[in-house]
Amino acid sequence: MWEKIKFEINSALGCLIRTNSQHWNLITKIKHPEIDGKEKEVIESIKHPVEIRRSLKDRSVYLYYKKSGNYYYCVVVKHLNGEGFIITAYLTKNIKEGEIVWKK
Fold first, then answer.
1. Do residues 85 and 95 make contact, with C-beta atoms less than 8 angstroms apart?
2. How far apart are CA 26 and CA 59, in angstroms?
3. Against a cut of 0.90, is the pTM above it?
4. How far apart are CA 97 and CA 44, in angstroms?
5. Alpha-helical segments (H) within 2-104
6. What is the pLDDT of residues 38-91, one digit of tens each?
7. Are 60 and 50 in contact (CB under 8 A)?
8. Residues 6+ apart with CB under 8 A from 27
9. Residue 88 in contact with residue 27, Cβ under 8 Å?
């Protein structure tokens, strides 16, 4: 059975990004509870990032960064055939190394 889509948005790169409720709960309740209640910030990080980098380990994975105080929201997204899905999201003080593919 397909899980209900939690949200889907068009990224700054023109890619349709989505996540389902089950995966969103895994991110916000287990992996990165600091993101719980920050759905709006995650969506804004995808729509209006300050920078997008391509992962050094997997060229189909992109890291979307949005500044918030002394931290960045980092939303890790897998791109496949013009669409994508959120792998995870978290707060970080530093932008990871990787190829810059988009910058504000």
1. no
2. 24
3. yes
4. 22
5. 21-25, 39-47
6. 999 999 999 999 999 999 999 999 999 999 999 999 999 999 988 999 999 999
7. no
8. 19, 35, 86, 88, 89
9. yes
